[in-house]
């Protein structure tokens, strides 16, 4: 598989606190990758590190098979992004604002500006100024600014944040159009599970600066909401055994005696036999199903993603 972005073991620390710790990420070319996590999980910091806007403490980033240390201006010309507000001028129209930003990039091309506004559904040379725009129109203009030079890769940080349900649906349609009709690779962040479910091809789940899960969305739907529920007396010791002896990493202790295993390397009978042979008494073992929402809640520490 060909990747537009590959990040390996990224770390970022402020003082003694890690905000990003050992994050690896793989964004397939031509697909929509959803970076999913609660507010403050580290999504924006990861995006800034990918773009070189925040200096990483360790790890590496590759864009289009080129290491970040060797990025040339041609690489950045292939990327469009909306991370935080681009600071549009409130007394200018959409066309005037895009002209200013295009000039900062080196060249103003009226046809490109017209095309970008057309893609996001905003009028060209309209008289309405930015301060009169609705939030949805402002978000669309931000995306128009990101795509005005026809980049291959788009990095969109919470593009639906603050929108009403109709605005969210319209933005979702626009992002899908950019992927399917225009062939863009899109890295998008969100804290809204329902939004991501209807949009993405791949998912990376971030929690407290760590990548907890990375897989295709279909794989997530197929496997990750299944788990084995284990009731044992020595739950802490059993968790250590599962990790160290059976290489089972994805476990959750939901209370003192209950372990939920999401790394389904073994069936219930085989797992029970291994635990018995290791000297652990299993009071109960069963295969269970979570909803996807339940899975995210448990994976991120019992708190749901909105």
Write the layout of secondary structure elements.
Elements (H helix, E strand, L loop, with lengths): L2 E12 L2 E12 L3 E5 L6 H9 L6 E6 L2 E2 L5 H4 L2 E4 L11 H12 L4 H11 L14 H13 L5 E5 L7 H16 L4 E6 L2 H5 L4 E6 L2 E7 H8 L1 E7 L2 H12 L4 E3 L4 E4 L6 H10 L4 E8 L2 H8 L7
Helix pairs in contact: 3-4, 4-5
Distance between the termini: 32 Å
- Beta-sheet strand percentage? 25-35%
pLDDT below 50 for ≥5 consecutive residues: which ranges? none
Shape: elongated
Strand order, main sheet: write it out: 6-7-8-3-9-10
Fraction of helical residues: 25-40%
Query: How many strand segments?
Result: 14
What is the average of the pLDDT values? 89
- The DSSP helix count reads 11
Structural class: alpha/beta
Could you describe the largest sheet, including whether it forms a barrel? 6 strands, mixed
Classify the oligomer: single chain
Radius of gyration: 23 Å
Pattern of helices and strands: EEEHEEHEHHHEHEHEEHEHEEHEH
Main attributes of the structure:
11 helices, alpha/beta, 306 residues, six-stranded mixed β-sheet, 35% helix, four-stranded antiparallel β-sheet
Provide a short characterization of the protein structure:
This protein has 306 residues and is α/β, with parallel strands linked by helices. It is built from 11 helices and 14 strands.
């Amino acid at each position: 598989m060909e990747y537009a972005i590959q990040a390996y073991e990224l770390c970022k620390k402020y003082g003694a606190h890690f905000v990003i710790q050992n994050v690896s990420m793989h964004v397939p070319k031509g697909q929509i990758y959803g970076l999913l996590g609660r507010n403050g999980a580290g999504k924006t910091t990861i995006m800034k590190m990918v773009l070189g806007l925040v200096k990483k403490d360790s790890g590496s980033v590759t864009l289009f098979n080129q290491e970040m240390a060797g990025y040339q201006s041609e690489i950045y010309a292939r990327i469009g992004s909306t991370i935080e507000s681009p600071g549009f001028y409130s007394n200018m129209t959409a066309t005037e604002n895009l002209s200013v930003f295009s000039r900062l990039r080196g060249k103003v091309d009226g046809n490109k500006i017209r095309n970008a506004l057309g893609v996001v559904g905003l009028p060209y040379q309209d008289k309405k100024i930015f301060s009169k725009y609705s939030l949805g129109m402002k978000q669309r203009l931000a995306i128009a600014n990101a795509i005005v030079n026809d980049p291959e890769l788009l990095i969109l940080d919470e593009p639906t944040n603050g929108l009403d349900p109709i605005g969210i649906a319209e933005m979702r349609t626009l992002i899908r159009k950019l992927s399917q009709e225009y062939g863009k690779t899109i890295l998008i962040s969100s804290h809204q599970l329902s939004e991501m479910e209807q949009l993405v091809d791949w998912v990376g789940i971030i929690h407290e600066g760590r990548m907890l899960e990375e897989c295709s969305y279909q794989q997530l739907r197929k496997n990750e909401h299944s788990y084995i529920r284990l009731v044992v007396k020595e739950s802490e010791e059993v968790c250590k055994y599962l990790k160290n002896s059976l290489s089972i990493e994805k476990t959750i202790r939901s209370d003192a005696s209950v372990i939920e295993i999401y790394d389904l390397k073994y069936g219930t009978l085989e797992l029970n036999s291994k635990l018995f042979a290791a000297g652990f008494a299993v009071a109960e073992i069963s295969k269970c199903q979570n909803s996807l929402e339940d899975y995210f809640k448990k994976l991120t520490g019992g708190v749901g993603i909105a």
